[in-house]
Amino acid sequence: MADITLEQAQRVVEAALADARERGTAMNVAVVDAGTNLKAFGRMDGAWLGSIDIAIRKARTARFFDMPTGDLGQLSQPGGSLFNIEVSNGGLITFPGGLPLEVDGEVVGAIGVSGSTVENDHAVASAGVRAL
Amino acid sequence: MADITLEQAQRVVEAALADARERGTAMNVAVVDAGTNLKAFGRMDGAWLGSIDIAIRKARTARFFDMPTGDLGQLSQPGGSLFNIEVSNGGLITFPGGLPLEVDGEVVGAIGVSGSTVENDHAVASAGVRAL
Amino acid sequence: MADITLEQAQRVVEAALADARERGTAMNVAVVDAGTNLKAFGRMDGAWLGSIDIAIRKARTARFFDMPTGDLGQLSQPGGSLFNIEVSNGGLITFPGGLPLEVDGEVVGAIGVSGSTVENDHAVASAGVRAL
Amino acid sequence: MADITLEQAQRVVEAALADARERGTAMNVAVVDAGTNLKAFGRMDGAWLGSIDIAIRKARTARFFDMPTGDLGQLSQPGGSLFNIEVSNGGLITFPGGLPLEVDGEVVGAIGVSGSTVENDHAVASAGVRAL
User: Fold this and answer.
1) Which positions in chain A touch D37 (Cβ < 8 Å)?
2) What Pfam families does the record tag this protein with (chains A, B, C, D) (predicted)?
3) 10 Å Cβ neighbour count for B102?
4) Does residue D1 lie in a domain region?
5) Residues of D in contact with A45 (CB under 8 A)
6) How far is D80 from chain B (nearest CA, A)?
7) Residue B32 belongs to domain spanning
8) How many domains does chain D have?
9) Which residues are CB-neighbours of A42 under 8 A, at least 6 positions away?
10) Nearest Cβ partner of A41 from D17, D38, D49?
C-alpha cells in the first residue's frame, strides 16, 4: 500500500492554510494516511472549535470511500441509495471539504477542511490536493 | 481568548431560570466556557431528565460554531449544505435553545436550554444572554 | 423516592464553593439527584478542566452505592473485593470527594468535588453536606 | 485565558519532531490549546498507529490538570490517592510524555508525545516545551 509521508502531509497542510489565509477564512486542516489514521493537523487561530472533529471526519470519509465527501453526500439524502450512511464508522461527514490525496494515480490518504462555507472548505481542500 | 467567569455564568443561569419560572416551564440550563467546557448548570424540579444532556449539547454546539443552534439546524436539513452535521463532535443538537454568550463583542461561552418547546427553550436562553 | 430540590442543590453548591474559597482552592462542584442525574454544577475560575468530569463522576459514584467514594476506593484496590469496579457504569471515581446527600435519613442525591488534594476535595464536599 | 497560537504550536511540534529524529525514534506529536482542543499534530513515517490517540490523550491530560502526565501517574497507582483516575474524561494517559506549555507563567496548552519508551517520549516532549 502506497502511503503519504509526513513531509508530503505537512506540505498539503501548509498549502491549504496559505490558501485559507488568502481567502480571509479561519480553517481546520487535517490529513490522514492510506489507513485513515491522522497524519498531520493544524488549526488557525480563531477557527471554529467544532470544526476540529469535522475536518478529521471529512478526511477519513474521503479515504474511506476514495471520493470527495460532497459526492457521498449526494447519495446519502432522503430517498438516496446511501441514506444516512453518516451513522457508520463512528460518524461520517458527507458535505464538501474532504478529498482523496493521490500520488501516481494511487490514493495515499485524504485531506479534510472545515471552518467556513462548504464552498470555501472545498476550495481550500483543493489547494491542498494541488500541493501534492 | 476571553473566557466567562463563574460569577457571570451563574448570573446567566439564574436569569434563565427566572424567565423559565415566569413561563411556567421546567428547564435545564447549562453554560459552557470559551473552550466548550461546562461552567454552571441548574435543573428545575420536574424538568425532563433527557434534557440534561440536550441542554449541555446545545451550549457546546453554540460555542462550537459561534452561532445560535437553530441557525445551524437550518443548514443541516436534507439537501442543506451541512446535512447530518449532528453526528460530529460526539453528537450536536441543532434545534433552537443554544446561543453564544458575548462580552465586549467576543464570544466567551454559550448557554443551552432544554425542557419545553423549542420556542420556549430559545426564549429562555435569550433571557440568559441578556443578563450578561 | 425522596429527591433533592433545585433550591437544596444550589444551597449545597454554594456552601461548597464558599468553603473552597476559604481554603484558597479552585474547585468543581457537582450535585446529582436521587436518580444520579446532574442537578446543579459550578466551576470556579481557574479550576482544573479535567475535574469537571471527575466531580460529576464522584457525585454519581456516591449515589450509585450510597457511600462516600473513598470507602468504595478501599475495596477496589488490587486484591480487594471490588477490584477495578471503576470500569463499570461508564467509569467510576473511587477516591475521596464524593458524598451522599441525605434528608431525614434518606439519600436524596450526592455531591462530588474535584480540584485539589483528595483531602481538600473531601473537606469541601463535607461542607456541602452540612448545608443540607 | 491566554491561549497558544498556531505559529507557537507548529514551532513546538517541529522542535519535538527534530529531537525525535536525532534520537532515531518515530513519534506522534500533538499540541492542544488552553481548552484542551487539538491545535497541531504530526506523525513521523513508521510511527506506531496506536500512539496517535495516546499522544493526543497525553496532551489533553497534561492540560486537564496542568502537570506532567507522569506526575499524575505517580498518584494513580494502586494505593495512591488518585487510583484509577484514568477512567475519567473519556480516558486519560498518565505515564510520561505529556507536559503543559506555558507563556509568561500561564498555561496556554500542552504537548503529548508517544511512539517510543516513556523516557524518550518525555525527552521529546521536553524539547517541544523548550521551543516555546
Assistant:
1) 43, 49, 52
2) HbpS-like (PF03928)
3) 16
4) no
5) 5-6
6) 28
7) 6-131
8) 1
9) A13, A17, A28, A29, D6, D9, D10, D39, D40, D41
10) D38
CATH of the domain at A103: 3.30.450.150
Tens of pLDDT along B31-83? 999 999 999 999 999 999 999 999 999 999 999 999 999 999 999 999 999 99
From chain C, the residues in CB contact with D63 under 8 A are: 49-50
Cell reading at A49 = 472549535
Against chain B, the chains showing at least 3 CB pairs within 8 Å are: A, C, D
Question: Is the residue at C1 inside a domain?
Answer: no
pLDDT in tens, B70-86: 999 999 999 999 999 99
pLDDT digits (tens, 9 = 90+) for C59-84: 999 999 999 999 999 999 999 999 99
| Burial class (CB within 10 angstroms; exposed 0-12, middle 13-18, buried 19+) of C12 | buried
Give the dihedral sign, CA A51/A53/A54/A58: positive
Task: Check pLDDT > 80 for residue C1.
Answer: no
E strand segments, A6-129 = 28-33, 38-43, 98-103, 106-114
Tell me, yes or no, whether B1 lies in a domain: no
Q: What chain A residue is nearest to B80 in terms of C-alpha separation?
A: A95
pLDDT band at D7 (very low <50, low <70, confident <90, very high): very high
Helix count and strand count (H, E) for chain D: 4, 4
From CA B68, how far away is CA B54, in angstroms rounded? Answer: 14
Task: Examine residue C97 and state whether it is found in any structural domain, yes or no.
Answer: yes
Chains touching D (at least 3 CB pairs under 8 A) are A, B, C
